[in-house]
Design a protein that fits this description.
about 270 residues; mainly alpha; MetI-like fold; about 75% helix
């Protein structure tokens, strides 16, 4: 009875959290169609009228698509590096026994506990010495270094694969590299797919790293555009609302369409108890 009560309590808490999040998103979208005078004078009341002026200004006058392009470029570059680095590291950890393997695994697990902010000073000095300040490459390199979670999921997946697959590839004369590319990596595609979706949200919403390493307006990303509006909220409340909605819609749409694929991938990379 205690177990059923606990499950029921957890379910209620999850529904409350989901309901509050949905309310915030709907309220944000609702206010994005209102004018600034209406927002300031009648914040919680019924609006006088709805308008698309804010969206027209965002896409027409504020160069919103430039920020979208910068965020997309960083997202694609970082994801490619994350997939390549994490899949190769996880394959070695999951399929082979070697000295220092447990220590290396612990290293990646510890990486889950420490954010990039703890080492930002030496990272900044290193990026500056390489001449990469105010470039998208600097942000891509830093964000693609956060591979602890992908390595953990893929390591468990590769370790659980039957040894017969590996031995069959070796009997057929496949090299280690060919075995990885032609046999093992395609089998891990559900996990890789879910990793890409989860990491995409983190990279797309990343604020701290672009803020420090992208100085010029032409290179900045969507979170930095939103910060520009929210830093002077009384004067740019309407644009802050519409920019937040425009930045959130792609992520929500992606999760809605691919939610089942994400769960399948996480289940494939999880530990069966």
């Amino acid at each position: 009875m205690w177990k059923s009560r606990k499950i029921s309590t957890n379910t209620i808490l999850l529904w409350l959290y989901a309901g509050f999040t949905l309310f915030v998103l709907l309220y944000l979208t609702y206010n994005s169609f209102r004018t600034k005078p209406d927002l300031l004078s009648n914040t919680f009341g019924i609006p006088e009228r709805f308008t698309l002026e804010n969206y027209i200004r965002l896409f027409g006058e504020q160069n919103f698509m430039r920020y979208v392009g910068n965020s997309t470029l960083i997202l694609i570059g970082a994801l490619l590096l994350v997939v390549v680095l994490s899949s190769m590291a996880a394959y070695g950890l999951g399929r082979f026994q070697f000295r220092g393997r447990n220590m290396l695994t612990m290293y990646f697990l510890i990486g889950l506990m420490f954010p990039v902010q703890l080492g930002i000073v030496p990272i900044f000095l290193l990026i500056r010495s390489m001449g990469l300040l105010n470039t998208h490459v600097s942000v891509i390199l830093i964000l693609s270094a956060g591979i602890s979670m992908p390595v953990f999921l893929l390591t468990v997946f590769f370790a659980r694969l039957p040894k017969d697959l590996y031995e069959s590839a070796k009997i057929d004369g496949a090299s280690e590299w060919t075995t990885f590319l032609r046999v093992m990596f395609p089998l891990a595609s559900p996990v890789v797919f879910s990793i890409c979706i989860i990491m995409s949200v983190q990279i797309w919403n990343q604020f701290f790293v672009p803020l420090l390493f992208l100085n010029s307006e032409a290179n900045r990303t969507i979170p930095l555009l939103i910060m520009k509006y929210t830093s002077n909220l009384m004067y740019t409340m309407d644009m802050a609302m519409v920019a937040s909605v425009a930045a959130t819609i792609p992520v929500l749409a992606l999760f809605y369409v691919l939610a089942q694929r994400i769960m399948d991938g996480v289940s494939s990379g999880g530990v069966k108890g």
